[in-house]
Amino acid sequence: MCGVLCESSFVYACQFLDKIEVSSQQHSPASNSSSTKSEDSGLDDGPKKSVTSTVSAKPISRKSSRMSQSSGVSLPPVLEQLEHMIISDDWLGNETTTPVGLKQHVQVAKTRSREGQKLSELGRTLVTSASLKSYIDLLSSHHRQSIASWLYGSVNHVFSNLFRFSDSQVYCSDPEATISLSIRNGIGHAVKLALKSSYGTDYATKGWKAFVEQGAPVVYVSPALHMDVSSYLASEFGIADVTILPKLESDLSEIEGRIDHQQFEKILDEDLAAGKKPLILIGVVGTTILGQNDMISKILEIREKKAHFWLHITGQAIAALTFREPNNVLVHVLSQVDSMTFPIALWLGIPSAPVVTLHKSVEGYKASYREKLDSLPWWVASSYLSGKKIVDMIENAFLLSKVMLKGLSAIPEVEIVGVENPVDFANRVYKSKYTAPTVLIFKYNYVSIKNAIQHHKDLIQKNEDHDAISIAEKTLQDELEYGDYLNAWLRDGLLPESQALGIDTIELGGNYGIAFRFCPLEHAATFSSHIDHVQRFVRKLTDIMRIVESTVAAKLKFSELKDDFPSLVLLPIRNWAGIGAVCYIPSIVKETNPEDWNAIQKQQISHLNLELVHQLKSVDAAFSSGDCTRYGVSCVKFGMLSDVKDLHNLVLMVSDKGKEIENSQQYLDSLADLIRQGIEAANEALRKENDQRLQNEGMMRQLPIMGSLVNWWSPLTPESQNIRGRAFNLKTGE
Predict the structure, then answer these.
(1) Which of 17, 195, 529, 670 is the most exposed place for a label (fewest CB within 10 A)?
(2) DSSP 8-state code for residue 433
(3) Which stretches does UniProt call biased (Low complexity) (predicted)?
(4) 540-552: per-residue pLDDT in tens?
(5) Distance CA 13, CA 18 (A)
(6) Percent of the chain with pLDDT strictly greater than 90
(7) Which sign, positive or negative, has the C-alpha torsion 300, 305, 306, 307?
């Protein structure tokens, strides 16, 4: 009876997923289009039926049963309610049904795309296989143990051969909210094995007392591991001594560092002398930002000379082990580590599949029934894809990296971070002397930043005065800021071509700023990226780089033109990648220093420049209005320029148009109004002052005879007799 119920539940789950797929397509704006490519793995989904009916969002109620019956799928009321919650987000706005923790995320949830709900056939199978695990749990003990062992052995065989890691065992991490947390769970499993290997059965029976008797364990972590494992290891295993190893000094160490193996050797000697027990070292091969590798071969040598400890690795370069013809040195070195954790589900674009950890056998350790059964999703995935398909997808990602490297190296204006000679490096990669990088970080090569950095360093080395160094620091910050604006503008211009490749921007920090990140292992399978996408991106980047180069060249000449156009003032402006900004100064304000402009002058200048921008935009779209926060006035912004030769004509256009507006009847009328208002304000001030004088002197002093007598008896002080008078300044409006 129980088996029948579970089988029925699994059928309901499959039918429910079918219903969700249909309903989500009906709600999607692109529901009338069909696609043969999977959004998740790039596999063929087969033909999709066109859906003509629409499903309107309704409150969660029993009325949804009619929708289920009309589609031919009979679902229990509980699943009908869940169905509506998934395919529609209107219920999030209902105060009576919205969970307390979700109320603050209502607007965010309603704007999310439903594209992520579309699953490939493999994705659907993996999602519904969760029901199979529950079904297997209800079988007899011997039956379920046999199934779990068979699944585990099959997956073990696949991954051991795929990653050339012989005599290994597989561990599938519990699913977490993020991949980083799942990788952390894999690291935790490696630590568990290391404890069992180092302390034997004492750790299981004595706990922390084993640490007292045999020495406290020490965990060494690569500086390239971008996650906090200290608190995790302390709470899970009671390990308090976690050492983040020093970085190997280099120009890029402020972005991402590798293990300094010489410093590690010294730390290891100190720990051994203190009676501590080196437990595990967590290294990274194929870092997430620069794609660098810790020198695992050097660490293996240190382990052989000094003391034995468990060596665990993670990173994207592990994927290169799956090549049909992998690098022999890579295979030789990585086959000597004790365990490795890798997010192969991300590389293959597979949802709902756990992160995998491969490890060597440990005496006394045997995978539990639950750990064996957790390999079910990968048995499904490996059976569906086959080893050949998995290798094809990973090799395609490295091929895209190779093609992108070749394309970027051919553009002189592009800087590939971490690559000194891109052309030579690309040639070596194409000749298979080097493996294609797992990640490429590139940006616009803004030479002025490098010059500013070098000038700043020279001043510091020469011990120049503080003022000169401060000026150099200010110049450097301005150049770094402008370089970020240029790369941000590039990002917006390349957005359509970037989406198909999963290219995004990251903040590198230090003097590197914003850069583009291309990691095909993470996105190629999900977006079905291919070589044509890379080639289109490179062509678009080449075209846009010409505009950026012309703009930067024009910006350098911009300040030189100010002497030819005395009516224009160059103003500093932030958050702008264009040439710069100018402000047309009317002749009535020209003699006043910008630092001394009052509120009326600023209003007058802003009014003229806003009208100037309005007329310029009808002629050329390169102009726009802006605000100079330094002086509090509106200005004319020059945008990106495709040809530096046009700069003089554009500046001349601004100057001539400004004069035209200044001499126009409309502007003269506004100036006349300003003068009239000033005169009226002066008259009003004189009237108020006269009234105040009369009030202070009193009425007796105003009478012809009595006034003389009062003034003789009580003369006025010189201050009270002072007559101030009034003047109206046409230039300042005061």
Answers:
(1) 670
(2) S
(3) 25-35
(4) 999 999 999 999 9
(5) 9
(6) 44
(7) positive
Q: Is the dihedral of CA 195, 198, 202, 208 positive or negative?
A: negative
What is the spatial distance between Cα 22 and Cα 236, in angstroms, rounded to a whole number? 43
- Say if residue 609 is exposed, middle or buried (CB neighbours under 10 Å; 0-12, 13-18, 19+): buried
The strand pairing partners of 277, in sequence order, are 217
Name, in order, each residue with C-beta under 8 angstroms of 474's C-beta and a sequence gap of 6 or more.
none
**What distance in Å separates the CA atoms of residue 175 and residue 194, rounded to the nearest whole number?**
22
State the alpha helices, DSSP H only, in 53-140: 64-70, 77-87, 106-111, 121-137
If one counts every other C-beta atom within 10 angstroms of the C-beta of residue 478, the result is 14
Residue type, 234: A
Token output for 138 = 């209800």
**Type of residue numbered 406:** K
The DSSP element (H or E) to which 553 belongs, if any, is helix 531-558
User: Cβ of 202: how many Cβ atoms within 10 Å?
Assistant: 16
Residue with tokens 């240190």: 302
Backbone angles phi, psi at 84, to 5 degrees: -65, -35
DSSP 250: S
Would strands 277-284 and 217-221 be described as parallel, antiparallel, or unpaired? parallel
Q: In sequence order, what are the beta bridge partners of 293?
A: 285
Largest CA distance in the chain: 130
Q: Which of 118, 94, 115 is nearest to 106 (CA)?
A: 94
Going edge to edge, which strands form the sheet with 440-444?
414-416, 440-444, 514-518, 504-507
Confirm if 521 and 320 have CB atoms less than 8 A apart: no
- Alpha-carbon distance 623 to 640, whole Å? 9
Alpha helices in 494-530 (DSSP H): 495-499, 520-527
3-state secondary structure of 194: helix
Instruction: Give the phi and the psi of residue 450 in degrees, each rounded to 5.
Output: -60, -40
Mean pLDDT of 338-361: 92
H or E stretch including 26?
helix 2-27
pLDDT in tens, 278-309: 999 999 999 999 999 999 999 999 999 999 99
Q: Which residue has the higher pLDDT, 217 or 717?
A: 217
C-alpha 263: how far from chain center: 32
Instruction: For residue 628, give the H/E element and its range.
Output: strand 623-628
